């Protein structure tokens, strides 16, 4: 779309945005460029003043944060909260402990209730002990052995 | 696109992920610090403003809604903090007017580049605050016209007017006296 560009409006653009037409508002850029190409001498003084100012502003260096400031900014951010272990997450560890405890209690009860009948061999005695620890009735086993 | 990657980083930074926090700081702290430095003309105060801006950002992140670009929001916070400081500074110096500093560039070659830069920086910081903001955002930083206007919460037309006045004022201070 071709826009009408007047001398007065072009001077306003130069005074606000500088000598580089690419900085002008997009809707007026093409028309401004066309007028500048058509009659550059009419805007020479404004362009010269704008170029001088652009050069001064272009000489202003960037400002970069120091490493200390960067570290302080990063350090000021909230840290991730330590994740609480859920009951399910905690369960496997405790279940292992529980299983061992159950086994120990079972062995203790079993040993406490083992019949004192004599056994023929050490092997049978051990078997009887284990069965008893696991809660089986060892009377039948002993009778069968006799 | 910066916008979508911002959203991703904001979400991760809000959860406390250090890599995302670092990315946001590295991307935006130079612009915020530069804006504050040009507005206040004082590096120490500018660093304070930058820290305050990011502290506010961290507080806002958990409830962040992408109605505006994060960059725009962050610069707007910084700009408002600068306005607050300039207002307090004005109130504090009401009874005691500041010493007038001659910022005119001299036509001879005695003025080296460092002095020239200092003169320009001082002249920008001495501009009326909205003119200084417009000039910094548009002429010294890479903000688009729409984004600069959005940061300042004004129209592009108003931004253009501020820019024209800022450049005229700078010219008067820096160049015309040297031409006389």
From TrEMBL, chain A:
Record key words, sorted: Membrane, Transmembrane, Transmembrane helix
Membrane spanning residue stretches: 94-112
The UniProt record lists the keyword Transmembrane helix: yes
Designated name of the protein: Uncharacterized protein
Gene source species: Hyphomonas chukchiensis
Highest classification ranks of the organism: Bacteria, Pseudomonadati, Pseudomonadota, Alphaproteobacteria, Hyphomonadales
Automatic annotation (TrEMBL), chain B:
InterPro entries: RNA_pol_sigma-70-like, RNA_pol_sigma-70_dom, RNA_pol_sigma70_ECF_CS, RNA_pol_sigma70_r2, RNA_pol_sigma70_r4_t2, RNA_pol_sigma_r2, RNA_pol_sigma_r3/r4-like, WH-like_DNA-bd_sf
Annotated RNA polymerase sigma-70 region domain residues: 24-90
GO biological process: DNA-templated transcription initiation
Keyword Secreted tagged: no
UniProt domain RNA polymerase sigma factor 70 region 4 type: residue ranges: 119-170
This protein's UniProt keywords: Coiled coil, DNA-binding, Sigma factor, Transcription, Transcription regulation
A molecular function GO annotation: DNA binding
Coiled coil: 149-176
Listed Gene3D superfamilies: 1.10.1740.10, Winged helix-like DNA-binding domain superfamily/Winged helix DNA-binding domain
Protein family (similarity comment): Belongs to the sigma-70 factor family. ECF subfamily.
Protein name: RNA polymerase sigma factor
Organism: Hyphomonas chukchiensis
